[in-house]
Design brief:
alpha+beta; two-stranded parallel sheet; binds S-adenosylmethionine
Length: 98
């Protein structure tokens, strides 16, 4: 799926060009490899990696405390992360298992 416009609805930091780069690099990873993302926030960058990784079937492992960084204060992003991943992973053609 090339239309990733839904990403604009997800809270995150990356620019459009970073979105393209994440998808491009992830699409070059082969099936026998695992992409490890450290710092997923609400899943925006994770979805880009999942989208790219489906090209060759690479796996994506996302790691986060889901408590944000110091400047975010007292947050818990796990619920939003799971909603976003569940909502869109199947849509972009990638099964979500966690
Ligand atoms: C700038 S945000 C990541 C943004 C995300 N990649 C995106 O593009 O939407 C940084 C993330 O790192 C996570 N984080 C901070 N310290 C961490 C740690 N020690 N281990 C894992 N994740 C951590 C925070 O919870 C936060 O979600």
């Amino acid at each position: 799926m090339s239309n990733m416009k839904f990403l604009k609805e997800i809270d995150g930091w990356q620019t459009d060009s970073e979105t393209k780069l994440l998808i491009k690099h992830a699409s070059q990873i082969t099936k026998d490899r695992i992409i490890l993302e450290i710092g997923s926030w609400k899943g925006k960058s994770t979805l880009c990696l999942l989208h790219g990784a489906q090209k060759h079937g690479a796996k994506v492992v996302a790691v986060d405390t889901f408590r944000g960084s110091e400047e975010h204060g007292d947050v818990d992003t796990y619920a939003e992360f799971t909603v976003n991943i569940n909502k869109y992973a199947e849509y972009i053609g990638y099964p979500a298992n966690y």
